[in-house]
Amino acid sequence: MSGPQEIEVKYRVFDLDDLERELAARGVILSEPVHQDDQAFAQGGWSYGQSKVGVPFARLRTQAGRHLFTVKRPVANEMACIEHESEVTDREEMRRAVELMGFYPTVRIVKTRRTARLGELLLCLDEVEHAGSFLEIEKVLGQGEDGELVQAELDEFARSLGARLERTTETYDSIVRAALLQ
């Protein structure tokens, strides 16, 4: 099974105003904030503490009255995934279908997101309930590109911003779950 491979790097943001100034200095214009309400699902048999590589995960997202169903399967690491996404009309019915397919709900992730495009990159500045501020930098791999090499390039770009950032290799479901368990 194949599909588009989305590569990302993620950073905890310590000074949001500073990061916004650094981005603006590079001509990056962030979108208006959008509210995203995500329910994450894991495949039956998988549990936190196990590797996510090779395991499919599902998500139901509601944003601006639209519902999106997404399935991701990490390839090289949690931030390098084959991804398929489609709009659905009935979130609750899709939730029941996902559970019938053997997935179970893990964590609800609620965030406010602002985005910007910078060439082939998608920049996402997220305020995540229970977890804080994060910067995600995403790129869809081109033919023949190496995901881990692209992650290194994205990391180099993030560090060039000059803002105080701390890279994390955790996905939002793991970050929110850890915050709620504290």
| Number of beta strands | 9
Which strand-content bin applies to the residues?
over 45%
CATH class identity: Mainly Beta
The outline comes out as: globular
What is the CATH T-level topology?
A: Hypothetical Protein Pfu-838710-001
pLDDT averaged residue by residue = 94
Helix fraction, binned, reads 10-25%
Report the CATH superfamily: Hypothetical Protein Pfu-838710-001
Number of domains: 1
Question: What topology does this entry show?
Answer:
Blueprint: E1 5-13, H1 16-25, E2 34-43, E3 57-63, E4 66-77, E5 80-88, H2 91-100, E6 103-118, E7 121-128, E8 132-140, H3 147-160, E9 165-168, H4 172-181
Organism: Actinomadura craniellae
Protein name: Class IV adenylate cyclase
Pfam families: CYTH (PF01928)
Descriptive notes:
- By secondary structure, the chain is an alpha+beta fold.
- It has one domain: Hypothetical Protein Pfu-838710-001, CATH 2.40.320.10.
- The protein is about 25% helix and about 45% strand.
- The protein has four helices and nine strands.
- It has an eight-stranded antiparallel beta barrel with strand order 1-5-4-3-2-6-7-8.
- A hairpin with a 2-residue loop joins strand 6 and strand 7.
- The termini are far apart.
- About 25% of the residues are buried.
